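Hi P.,

Sorry for the delay on this. The queue was packed all week, but I finally got your sequence through. Input first:
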Amino acid sequence: MRIPSLAAAALLACGTAAAQVPDGALLGSACAGCHGVTGEGGHGIPSIRQMHGREHFVELMRAFRANERPNTVMGRIARGYTEAEIAALAAHFARAQ
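Then the structure:
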C-alpha cells in the first residue's frame, strides 16, 4: 500500500521537527551524576542551577568546548554537545531554579 506523498511529507516533517528540538531534561540527566539532579552541585562541584542566566551557561559551555576554560572533564564533555543541545540544557537548568 502506497502512502500519498502529502501524507508522507507531513510524517517526515513531524519527525524532522521533533529531532531538531533536543530534550533539555533528558540531556540534563547526564549532568546529574556530578552536578545533582537539579544542578545544585556540591562537594566541590559547581552549581549549574545558580548560574547567572542562560547566556552565562551557554558562554561557559562554549568556553569549555573550545578549551578556553581549563577543567579536567568539562572540556571533553562539552565537545559532545551541539549548539542546540547546549541551548536546551541552559533552558532546562534555568527552569530548575
